[in-house]
């Protein structure tokens, strides 16, 4: 395989066993530019400094011709600011790039898929991001290799500096934006609109721990859309117990395997797939009784109650 020339940012922390999997995967495409960011250890976590150091030393396996830049923080700034500041750092140098956190393991076809679409939509200001994750449970959306979505996701993704420039860790004019109807085209029900208003409102004071809701709001507020593949290209390993965030088992969210994208890509019309977005909202995000009962069944009542109590008192 020829050397891969699109810049890649990888975001590490304290999980060497995941980092080595990602680096081994990258070794197969030999990227010519790698940006490697890692947050510092938390002072109250015994043994974390050693794990962070072990994780950082793994970059020594990069033995191909590669321009490597590192951003290794001495002190912990949290996974919200840690990730978002790493992305901003890459875009100090690059016009576009691919972003992979340590728990996102891509199929090799993810890389040329992103590269082609990054170039194709480079000057299309409406398209904000390209995702490698498909959560449609085997349902194909249209005849293309990908479809357009308001819910394209950030488990292995790519974007442009022009898009990231809109990112802010503040929910600017949240009430005004929702009350004006500016975002109404996104939502397919009043309950969906209310869900996201509450979700963003809850996230206002959580910038140190999350960034994805801030990014989603920044995209929506600036009339952005995303691209999602019609097959899954990323295994997300972040549902393991060692993750910073605690998750319930969720069969609709967890991807157990990846598929290989076929080339040449079949390009799609730039029309939002409303059925795909509704499926994502109902099965991944909503607080509907059907999702509640499914998660209860998949996790058991003890684990489910433990999760609820943790999140009720997390503030």
Name the features.
315 residues; alpha/beta; Spore Coat Polysaccharide Biosynthesis Protein SpsA, Chain A; two-stranded antiparallel sheet; 11 helices; 37% helix; 15% strand; globular
Outline the low-pLDDT stretches.
240-246
H/E order of the elements?
A: EHEHEHEEHEEEHHHHEEHHH
CATH homology group: Spore Coat Polysaccharide Biosynthesis Protein SpsA, Chain A
Counted up, domains total: 1
> Which fold name fills CATH's third level, the topology?
Spore Coat Polysaccharide Biosynthesis Protein SpsA, Chain A
- Span from first to last CA? 49 Å
Reading off the top of the CATH hierarchy, the class is best stated as: Alpha Beta
> What percent strand?
5-15%
Number of helices: 11
CA-based gyration radius = 19 Å
What's the CATH architecture name?
Alpha-Beta Complex
- Number of distinct beta strands: 10
Strand neighbour order, sheet with most strands: 3-2-1-4-8-6-9-7
Envelope shape: globular
Summarize the biggest pleated sheet.
8 strands, mixed
- Give helix % range: 25-40%
Determine the structural class based on helices, strands and strand pairing.
alpha/beta
- Give the quaternary arrangement of the chains: single chain
Mean pLDDT: 89
């Amino acid at each position: 395989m020829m050397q891969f020339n699109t810049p890649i940012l990888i975001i590490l922390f304290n999980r060497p066993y995941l980092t080595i999997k990602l680096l081994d995967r990258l070794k197969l495409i030999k990227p010519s530019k790698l940006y490697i960011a890692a947050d510092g250890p938390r002072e109250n976590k015994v043994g974390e400094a050693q794990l962070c150091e072990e994780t950082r030393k793994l970059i020594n396996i990069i033995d191909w011709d590669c321009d490597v830049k590192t951003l290794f923080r001495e002190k912990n700034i949290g996974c919200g600011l840690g990730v978002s500041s790493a992305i901003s750092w890459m875009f100090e140098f690059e016009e576009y790039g691919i972003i992979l956190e340590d728990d996102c393991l891509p199929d090799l076809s993810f890389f040329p898929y992103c590269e082609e679409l990054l170039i194709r939509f480079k000057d299309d200001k409406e398209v904000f991001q390209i995702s490698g994750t498909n959560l449609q449970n085997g349902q194909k959306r249209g005849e293309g290799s990908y479809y357009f979505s308001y819910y394209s996701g950030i488990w292995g993704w790519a974007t442009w500096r022009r898009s990231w420039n809109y990112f802010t860790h503040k929910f600017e004019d949240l009430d005004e934006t929702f009350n004006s109807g500016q975002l109404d085209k996104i939502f397919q029900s009043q309950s969906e609109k209310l869900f996201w208003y509450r979700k963003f409102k809850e996230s206002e004071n959580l910038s140190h721990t999350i960034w994805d809701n801030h990014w989603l709001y920044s995209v929506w507020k600036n009339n952005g859309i995303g691209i999602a593949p019609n097959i899954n290209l990323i295994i997300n390993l972040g549902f393991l117990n060692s993750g910073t965030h605690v998750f319930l088992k969720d069969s609709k969210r967890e991807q157990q395997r990846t598929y290989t994208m076929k080339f040449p890509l079949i390009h799609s019309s730039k029309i939002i797939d409303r059925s795909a977005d509704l499926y994502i909202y109902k099965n991944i995000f909503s607080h509907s009784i059907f999702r509640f009962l499914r998660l209860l069944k998949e996790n058991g009542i003890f684990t489910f109650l433990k999760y609820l109590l943790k999140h009720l008192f997390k503030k």
